[in-house]
Amino acid sequence: MLRRLRIWKWRISSWLMRFAQKPYAKTTLFLHSFADSSFFPVTIDITLIPISIAAPKKAFIFALWATIGSVLGGIFAYYIGHEFMASFGKAIVALFDSEETWEIMLNTFRGEYAKWTLIVASLTPLPFALATMASGVADMDFTTFLLLSFVGRATRFFLLALLINYFGPAVQVFLNKYSRIIAVSFAIIFILFVVFLIIR
Fold this sequence. Notes:
Blueprint: H1 2-19, H2 25-36, H3 45-54, H4 59-83, H5 85-96, H6 99-109, H7 114-123, H8 128-137, H9 142-167, H10 170-199
């Protein structure tokens, strides 16, 4: 089952990378960003990076599209977590194959450091959809959720746009080469962050 899920994710990733070269790339970027923050287990980076590299001068515009789509998707996931966790929410967690990460994140969101957890999740390649759903389950103040999500996602996407604007294709080469190391590093940082909050 897990192997089949990984193959499916790889095929979707390959398809999205080809889609990024089309004239309607911005629409693809917006829809993918929305889905990435709510229910889709394929990171927005595989669409945002190729589109931005193809037109570096428009990288900041693409970052804005990604930010808006991501925040709107986060609102959708917040609503799912708040109202439909027992049905749709559980299916999304299973789709991400991240039950352990979900439990850790949910426990943190129910504590006093929920805001910091949301910021960390919004800035890293970790599944943002899990954080947005956890915010809804934990009934985080919606205005706070909206503000932190916007600031975190905008910071992440505009920083990436800045790097692409200056370094071009070298950014994608670097990320492709070290993607696993980066992902594992962020996962370790997140776990250490949670442990720190628990024992503090």
